[in-house]
Amino acid sequence: MKTQLRQISFIIFFLIPIFSFAQDPEIEWGEPVLLKEKIFDILGENSGGIYSVGGKGKDYFLENFDSKTYRKKFSKEIIIKEEDGLKTELARMLLLEENLIQLTYNVNKETKELNVFGYLLDKDGKITSERKDIITASFEKKSRAGYQDIRTSRDGSKLLVCNSTYFKKGSDFYQIDLTLYSSDLEPIIKTTTQVPVGEKTDISVSNFYVGNDGGFFMALTEQDLEKGVYVTKKFDIYSYQPYNGFQEEKIEIDLQDKMATSIALTSDRDGNLIGAGFYGEKYNAGIFKGVGLAGSYFIKIDPRENKILNSTMQEFSSDFTARVLKEKKADKGKLIPNYFTPLEIIGKGDGGAVMISEYQQVVFNSESRVTTYVHGPLAIVDIMPDGNINWVKPISKNQLYHEKQLALGGFFGGISISFAYTLSFIESQTVYHSALFGVRGDKLIVMYNDNPDNQEIEHFRDTKKLVGYLKSVPVVVEIDRDGKMKKSLLEGGKSEVVFRPGVSIQVKQGETIIYGTRRKEEKVGRLTY
């Protein structure tokens, strides 16, 4: 039996909302909704109501709900226009301010191009604009169209599109195109960056971010192959700001002899870029080689002066390592597996920040063709106003889902698009996993679905594996500034609807639209804080 391990990245910036709490979390559910299709994405809310996307079989539907009663007003099949005589698929639906946007894609095998198109829709879901060409990516082979992804600003006024070439050994450079759009899909600025590469170098876009003012950033890592292990050699932040005409500014991040393995990006109240993630070290364990996690880091950058204001690192404490690894391994100095993915970094009112990441692992059994998705403990990094890391704490949970040949990327003709919808993911119970979170005063609030027998368990390997979402209980974990945790049931426990963290969106300060299930009932509601 052969088992392949690989790490996954969700489009967390669309799925995990950010907010500041003003009161204890409360949920207001609407009446049960009889849905022929499952909701898998809530787009947002505007004067037309609440919009979502659902799927059934091979069809997609745009749905609209009343903002006060949460009753369904309409459900219309999403029509996908064939472009250039080629089969075209739905990549993404967006709600930017008052504009509904549809993104589609197709693959032209003759010209060897991946094409992404955009359309504006009216409030009833009807296409009202001509086709707008968003991405054209050339490729030599199927599945080698590079990396394509999108980000939206917090206020929904900007859309940032990333298109990078497929990294190929022996290439002279790695090219990344970043295009900034307004909420009506009008291009504001397009930038092209070409990074020279070596024979054994691997270049990748670690993350990118767009602010409400249109300023945007890109984190780029450069890795070299050393004895079978890719080791991070360079870690740079590229800045493009409207105040200087979006001229490219490169800021080199020095993590000494450590290797950055991930990064989450946002901006603080002063317009500075803040980022946090984990760093690792090489390890050799018999025939196994790789990079394990050793600690966390934090950076703050002033884009106006093109300088680093803060840069701090902190090793994991023995307590944190022991609660993630088995105690014997922790005592022997073993590193934590490199499966923690940053979900978000949130700026706090005092000038500090908090980063939340999740243990995400995908195990594919080539013999049984069963894929197991693991959503393990959360790692919370608290950063003080002076930039120093205060503490790193885990929240223990163990959420699993098994599926045959489940894929979390969009695939068509061998091409993968990171922001595409897939019907296999729509039917997945992974939407009941992960968590919602935010800051209330000086406390962090985390909400997720848990097994009711896990109330007093701290080590995630001892928790009962939450495979069936119907066995879960919505819980709230409150963490104070010293890292002390208090766990309790959310509202009525088992009697309440089981919410879906992956199907929710913050619509304004203190309010998030959510979607949940109780028995065979589907409900749309509002979480207020």
Describe the protein in words.
Strands 1, 25, 26, 27, 28 and 29 form a 6-stranded antiparallel sheet that branches. Helices cover 4% and strands 56% of the residues. The protein has 529 residues and is mainly beta.
Short description:
The chain is mainly beta and 529 residues long. Helices cover 4% and strands 56% of the residues.
Shape: globular
Structural class: mainly beta
The unreliable regions are: 1-22, 407-413
State the helix count: 4
Task: Please tally the β strands and state the result.
Answer: 38
Strand residues, percent? over 45%
Helical percent range? under 10%
**Mean pLDDT, all residues:** 82
Radius of gyration: 22 Å
Largest sheet: 6 strands, antiparallel
Distance between the termini: 49 Å
Which key features would you list for this structure?
529 residues, mainly beta, 6-stranded antiparallel β-sheet, 4 helices, globular, disordered N terminus
Question: What secondary-structure arrangement, pairings included, does this model have?
Answer:
Elements lengths: L2 E4 L5 H4 L4 E2 L4 E4 L8 E9 L2 E8 L2 E7 L6 E6 L11 E8 L2 E10 L4 E9 L10 E7 L8 E6 L5 E7 L8 E10 L4 E10 L4 E10 L5 E11 L2 E12 L7 E5 L6 E2 L3 E4 L5 E13 L2 E15 L4 E9 L2 H7 L2 H5 L8 E8 L5 E13 L4 E14 L5 E7 L3 E6 L5 E3 L2 E3 L5 H4 L9 E5 L2 E8 L22 E7 L5 E5 L8 E11 L2 E8 L2 E8 L1
Parallel strand pairs: 2-32
Antiparallel strand pairs: 1-26, 3-38, 4-5, 5-6, 6-7, 8-9, 9-10, 10-11, 12-13, 13-14, 14-15, 16-17, 17-18, 18-19, 20-22, 21-22, 22-23, 23-24, 25-26, 26-27, 27-28, 27-29, 30-31, 32-33, 33-34, 34-35, 36-37, 37-38
